[in-house]
Predict the structure.
Amino acid sequence: MAERLSCQRDAFQLPRDHHYFNCAYMGPLPRVSEEAGFDAIRKKRVPTRIIPPDSFWETDRLRELYAKLVGAPGPAGVAIQPGVSYGVATAARNLKVGAGENIVITHEQFPGNVYSWRRMAAESGADLRTVEPDEGPERGKSWNERLLESIDARTAVVAVPNVHWTDGTWFDLAAIGARCRDVGAALVVDATQSIGAMEFDFERVQPDVLICATYKWLLGPYSLSLAWFGPRFNDGDPLEETWIARERSNDFQHLVDYQDGYQAGAVRYDMAERSSFFLAPIAATSIDLLLDWQPTRIQDYCEELTREFLGEVGELGYSVEDPAWRSHHLFGLRMPESVDLAALKGSLAERNVSASLRGTALRLAPNLYNDSEDLGVLYDVLKAAVA
């Protein structure tokens, strides 16, 4: 059994009097990743240090790291893209949906994995099915059951997260994936709020597309995402015709010997200027660190860190989803009716507690840099809010 992780606050630059529970909004850069970014910027001072063609292929290491982190079969299926919506649009462009078929998503899903499906449904005459949860006990369990029930013989695409971005509700992707395979539907997963802090069982889920932005739980830069595309997409059409995705594009002397064919794998879906000399080194350094820490151990750390705290705030009247149906690194704390949300927001700011109010829930997203002192300050604020 792997050794449990201790708090890694020293690996980050967060001030001691800042209590950051908002990795679901944006992950802080680790110190080593920050230095990798500085080194990358300094490299551009003298452009002769960026030597073609090899420097233009350094992002291939990102493919290897992402495939290893999620347990994918290999790096060939990984594309380098600018954001989740780009990957979703790529998937939508290459999936066929007809009139009378349906596309399944979850209620209040993050819009990056919604708008392409809305367009597809409107243009094709397909039905966009939005699966809502039942409020009350066993909310997560019943939501998963309703999601599975919504997938039928007319379902062409299921586009869902691993955990819901507002409250951390966990969706059983292994069961959803099996159901998709039964009916022949494509499974498109936005795992931005889970990969990096939770293990992804690729073999059991078998997604057709698995997308993750790097700026949250991957502790990396903004404007970069990594997407794995399965065999359905082997011969698809990219959103843009970047030269770097074509055959023989590493032969800089003969770039004007234009090629019709793409390089093998998901490279065809790469964004233009994917080499990203500034961003890629930051992202790679952070993923290296996460592979060392291990997502399963990060999840265990968050569970152990918050267990006593959740019991204590439960006695104050706050509530949270059953642990069987939520993540430990991201969860929504439901408020007693007496809590003034505007006043609570102000109190959190006064004590330098960073968390996000999502509807009537306080979204808490701890990570390895949090400790009992952070939770103590948060508890004091929450206790005062119900006094």
In short: Residues 9-21+294-385 form a domain with the Aspartate Aminotransferase, domain 1 fold (CATH 3.90.1150.10). The mean pLDDT is 96. The longest helix spans residues 295-315.
